[in-house]
Amino acid sequence: DLSHNQLSNWNISLESQTLQEVKMNYNELTEIPYFGEPTSNITLLSLVHNIIPEINAQALQFYPALESLDLSSNIISEIKTSSFPRMQLKYLNLSNNRITTLEAGCFDNLSSSLLVVKLNRNRISMIPPKIFKLPHLQFLELKRNRIKIVEGLTFQGLDSLRSLKMQRNGISKLKDGAFFGLNNMEELELEHNNLTRVNKGWLYGLQMLQQLYVSQNAIERISPDAWEFCQRLSELDLSYNQLTRLDESAFVGLSLLERLNLGDNRVTHIADGVFRFLSNLQTLDLRNNEISWAIEDANEAFAGLTSLTKLILQGNQIKSITKKAFIGLESLEHLDLNNNAIMSIQENAFSQTHLKELILNTSSLLCDCHLKWLLQWLVDNNFQHSVNVSCAHPEWLAGQSILNVDLKDFVCDDFLKPQIRTHPETIIALRGMNVTLTCTAVSSSDSPMSTVWRKDSEILYDVDTENFVRYWQQAGEAL
């Protein structure tokens, strides 16, 4: 190991016939060094953080036994067809250089042995189709380059590739068949790019894919048949995107999926039955979305998730939890409801589950007779230490932890939560006609009451509404 010595050149023969590894990192070398005859025994050469401007095939000819070559953090600008002699190299690291060009056939002389190639942190903007004729390559890294578009058949010739990493390139377009030919690939990492859609065109040919990471993109939509060609996925990360809705067909074909991350999107709509195909899913992360209706009033939003053990719903807009919210989750053990302004939880809301951990914090609870059950349930299930729940109403209990409220104080003297007295009646009309629907609700609260109209579980924004408020007195009090 001759690292950190400010060496600028080396042309000295070494006597040792058994020398196998040479490390000359953090020097000032401008070319690949020569060590004389013993070079024929060297299997590892590490020249990290020097100022080598090019790869010279003549210099590498003196390393016939070389298996690992690390030239990362140099000033190499291109990989030519003549850069490498025929050799049995298995590991090649060219990360953190200035590479802009990959000539066609530049890796051909390494095709019989190369297993790992790292080209991270370079200036590559285009990958010529079929440039990688490396039938034994298993790991390819192209992180932090400048690749905006990936053409079809780009990676053809990588029959054994198992992992491809292309994070932080600014990729905005994956053409149909972009990954065609990667018949054995198990892991694809595309985080921190500019993709806007998941569709079967660019997923074509990935029938063995098990992990797909596309977080930190700008994905707005999952096409109905997106997963037709990659149905072996066990892990899918779609977090930090722009998804607003999960349509019924969003995950069709992913029956082997075990982990699904949809956190930090803008999801407001979850279609009934969207998860019904995910019978093997164990972890579902929906944190930091805008979910409310799916928990408050949808019919079995999580139906089909018979293997789910962990559900994360923290940071949403859930105000109430009904007794049918978690129907079908008989395997659920860990439930995270943190950072939701939950006002009410119906009795038996968790009866379908087998919870071992409940994470819940809210200071918005309506502590009336309908919530009396929760106090005893928390104690019976030993959750009193993992929750931070306090009353907002009635006023004389505001701020108190429900764990400190006496059971006799959970009363229903008034009805602060609005109660619907008149539901809209069914109206049959021709398309294009105007119809009027009427709904009435009452509350004893002096807070203003707001209304939201929904059709098929989705909020209607383009409708005309009129609100009428009436007050009346009961026992001398205004209602």
From TrEMBL:
Key words of the record: Disulfide bond, Leucine-rich repeat, Repeat, Signal
Domain (Ig-like) ranges: 418-479
Matching InterPro entries: Cys-rich_flank_reg_C, Dev_Immune_Receptor, Ig-like_dom, Ig-like_dom_sf, Ig-like_fold, Leu-rich_rpt, Leu-rich_rpt_typical-subtyp, LRR_dom_sf
Domain of life according to the entry: Eukaryota
Pfam families associated with the record: LRR_1, LRR_8, LRRCT
PROSITE patterns per record: IG_LIKE, LRR
Name of the featured protein: LRIG2 isoform 1
Organism this protein belongs to: Pan troglodytes (Chimpanzee)
